[in-house]
Design brief:
It is a single chain. The longest helix has 29 residues. The termini are far apart. 36% of the residues are buried. The protein has a six-stranded parallel sheet, sandwiched between helices. The chain has a three-stranded parallel sheet with strand order 2-1-4, with helices on one face. It has 321 residues and is an alpha/beta fold. The protein has two domains: 130 residues, Rossmann fold; 152 residues, Rossmann fold, CATH 3.40.50. Helix 3 packs across helix 12 and helix 7 crosses helix 11. It has 13 helices and eleven strands. The radius of gyration is 25 Å and the shape is elongated. This is L-Fucosyltransferase.
Length: 321
C-alpha cells in the first residue's frame, strides 16, 4: 500500500514537471521576441553585460540592416562598414550586435553605428532576411547580411566616409607616430611603405581554397625595389603574424626594413594606416591597413576573391603575380 502511494506521488511529481516544461516552452514560443533576443542569436562571442550603461533608443520606424558576427578585427571592420554602406544604399537604419562593437571599440573611438542593445527592448515581428541584392530596394523587411559580409561594391564608392567611421584611439595614434619617428632616417622626407605579411593560417588555407602557395620573399623584395627607385628616401614597416620569418627573409636583406614585434592587432593596424603606401599579400587585415593609409597598394594575385575585386574598384591598387 505504501509502495502504491509512493508510486502515485512520484507520478504526480513527474507529471507536474512535464506540465511546467511544456508551459515554459509554449510561453517562450508565443512571447514577443525582441531585438535583444536577436542579438544573442547573431553573436559568436559573449555580449558585454553592461546594459545599465547603454542608452536606450526609440524603436526604429524604418527597417534595419544588421549582420552576424564572425572573424577577427579585419572581418569585423568589413561587417561594420558593409552594414553602414548597405543602410545608406537602401534607406534603412544600421545596427550591429554589441559583440562586434566590443571588438571594434578596443581600437576605435566614437563608433557611430548604434548597437542592437540600444533597441533590445523593441519587439521583432519577423527576423531579418537575407534576400539577394536585387531585392533589397523592393523588400520592406530588415536585412541580415551574411557571415563574413564583405561588400566592396557598396563600401568603396563611399570610402572617404567609411574611413571616417574608423578613428583610432589616441594612444594607438600616438604610439604609431612614435614608432615611425624612430625610423625616420631622412627626417620629414621619409616615405613609409607599410608591408603586411600573413603566413600562419594561410600556409594551409591557400593551397586548399586558391590552389596557391604562400608568397615567397621575392614578391615583397621586388615591389620594395620599385618603391626604392621611385622614392630615394623610403622605409619599409613590416607587420606580420610571423615576424621572425620577416626578419630572416626581408630585414636581413635590406637596411631600410623595420619589423614590428610584440604588438597588438590594433596597434599593428594603426602603424600600417600611418604609412604612405602599402604592400600586402592577402587577407582583410592588410586590406584595411592599405585602405586607411591611402596611396599606392600592391597586392598578390590569388586569381579570385575579395583582393581581386578590390583591385578592380581601387584605381591605385595593383595586382602582382
Amino acid at each position: 500500500m505504501k509502495k502504491l502511494k509512493r508510486s502515485k506521488s512520484i507520478n504526480k511529481c513527474v507529471l507536474s514537471l512535464l506540465i511546467l516544461i511544456l508551459f515554459l516552452l509554449i510561453t517562450d514560443t508565443y512571447r514577443t521576441k525582441t531585438y535583444g533576443d536577436y542579438e544573442l542569436y547573431l553573436c559568436d562571442s559573449v555580449i558585454p553585460n553592461n546594459k545599465s550603461n547603454i542608452l536606450q533608443k526609440n524603436c526604429p520606424r524604418r527597417p534595419i540592416v544588421t549582420v552576424e558576427q564572425l572573424g577577427r578585427l579585419g572581418n569585423h571592420m568589413w561587417l561594420y562598414a558593409s552594414v553602414w554602406a548597405v543602410a545608406k544604399e537602401t534607406g534603412r537604419d544600421p545596427y550591429v550586435p554589441g559583440c562586434i562593437i566590443k571588438v571594434l571599440e578596443e581600437v576605435f573611438d566614437n563608433l557611430l553605428i548604434p548597437s542592437l542593445a540600444q533597441i533590445s527592448h523593441c519587439p521583432v515581428t519577423k527576423y531579418a532576411t537575407t534576400p539577394s541584392i536585387e531585392l533589397w530596394n523592393v523588400s520592406k523587411d530588415d536585412i541580415l547580411l551574411p557571415q563574413y559580409a564583405q561588400l566592396p561594391e557598396f563600401v568603396v564608392p563611399r570610402l572617404d566616409e567609411v574611413i571616417m567611421l574608423f578613428k583610432f584611439k589616441k594612444h594607438l595614434l600616438e604610439e604609431s607616430q612614435r614608432f615611425l619617428m624612430r625610423y625616420s632616417i631622412w627626417k620629414e622626407n621619409t616615405i613609409f611603405v607599410g608591408v603586411h605579411v600573413r603566413r600562419t593560417d594561410y600556409i594551409k588555407v591557400l593551397p586548399v581554397v586558391w590552389n596557391k602557395e604562400v608568397v615567397k620573399p621575392i614578391y615583397f623584395l621586388t615591389i620594395m625595389e620599385y618603391f626604392e627607385v621611385k622614392y630615394s628616401t623610403v622605409m619599409f614597416i613590416v607587420v606580420s603574424d610571423d615576424p621572425d620569418w620577416c626578419k630572416r627573409n626581408l630585414q636581413a636583406k635590406k637596411y631600410n626594413v623595420a619589423v614590428v614585434k610584440n604588438s597588438l592587432a590594433g596597434q599593428d593596424l594603426a602603424i600600417l594606416a600611418a604609412c604612405n603606401h602599402s604592400i600586402i599579400d592577402y587577407g582583410t587585415f592588410g586590406m584595411w591597413g592599405a585602405m586607411l593609409a591611402g596611396g599606392e597598394t600592391y597586392l598578390y594575385n590569388i586569381s579570385w576573391g575579395l583582393e581581386i575585386t578590390m583591385s578592380h574598384l581601387m584605381t591605385n591598387w595593383h595586382v602582382v603575380n
